[in-house]
Amino acid sequence: MNFGKAIEALKSGKKVARSEWNIGMFLWLKPATVVKAEWCKDPTLKAIAEHSGGAIPALGTICMFTGQGEILSGWSPLQTDMLAEDWVVVESLKL
Questions:
Q1: Residue 39, SS3 per DSSP
Q2: How far apart are CA 84 and CA 2, in angstroms?
Q3: Rounded Cα gap, residues 59 and 88, in angstroms
Q4: Could you report the per-residue pLDDT of 51-82, keeping only the tens digit for each?
Q5: Measured in Å, how far apart are the chain's first and last C-alpha atoms?
Q6: What are residue 35's phi and psi, to 5 degrees?
Q7: pTM for the full model?
Q8: Using one digit for the tens of pLDDT, what is the confidence trace for 20-39?
């Protein structure tokens, strides 16, 4: 499928990947939420939340589970990703 359909799949709660990516790599949509200061381990985020009255809205973001088994928050596509026609829905996770 194309990138537009991959975005639609993300919005509907599915995980997606490029067929050329390493096995196990995928994207998912982390929904918008409210971050409370007491949850924060990051001192800067904690200070921002405290300054905002103890909590702050957080926008949704596309995350990636990488081939190295790490999480990348705020994944941004390359032009090749946006123009690709090899996007697939990931049915089962291979972590």
A1: helix
A2: 6
A3: 25
A4: 999 999 999 999 999 999 999 999 999 999 99
A5: 23
A6: -100, 120
A7: 0.86
A8: 999 899 999 999 999 999 99
